[in-house]
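Quick one, T. Sequence first:
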Amino acid sequence: MLRTRLLTAAVLAPIILVTAVLGEPWLSLLVGLVIFLALVEVIGLLDAAGFQPPQVLMLAAGILVGGATIVAANQGFVGALLSSLLSATAIPGLPVVAFAAAVVVLGIASFTRLDPRSGFLTWATSMFGVAYVALLAPFIVLVAHLGPPDGGSGTTVGALGLRAGTTWMLSLLLVVWGYDTGAYAAGRWFGRRQLIPHISPSKTVEGVGGGIATAIVAAAIGAWLGGLPLWHALFMGPLVGLAAQAGDLAESMLKRAANRKESGYLIPGHGGMLDRLDSFLFAAPVLAGYALLVVGAGT
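Structure tokens:
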């Protein structure tokens, strides 16, 4: 199993890194595909948990919301009809309008349930599934559109002269992968105390410590690439790393509710797409928030 995981990672990691360096439109296309695949898996998990989501309608709503959020993240690069949509929804925002439409449509669909309690649970869990994937995943795209306070995502920064958006994206990848690697190694070698056994028995307190340590190192590399003072790593590493851990635990809770070990079987040795995406769903918004509120990044 470990050999399969390593071989799959050796194939996927370069693809993801190349996409991060190339930027748009390849990043948005990749994230859009990931949203579609993850939505399919979330719908399957909710169905297995007994919530009976309206599968086709929920998938369509998720694609609509995810697409609208990706378009909003790319607003400086879109034109024609998409630009008109952004202008027409300037006050609430295109993602808000799309999600509001999803809430209304999914609410109406729940009227078909004869038991009002069942109908309400169907409505609530369907909205959760759409928001969980389609609103959070596009933050990965937003991270790649961040720039320095006095520039945009295309401004060159750091010792290597990379685009600012690329360095933020690389920072996200480095910290999440660094935390995951450090937590796995520390948990396997030193793990004694379980973290949250009722959700994920294999996670340990010692693993969290190892993950935070490697996340700080990874964040320091990201800060160097982005031309930021290295002290940012002391805050960015733990914040983003712990957010990644929370994202992993949140998906584990959903899988336990569905009595599933993996979200799917798409990626050999790694389970489903959601199993690879879960950490980024929480980590990307946290990193974007840190960049905008603490670093003062531009967009």
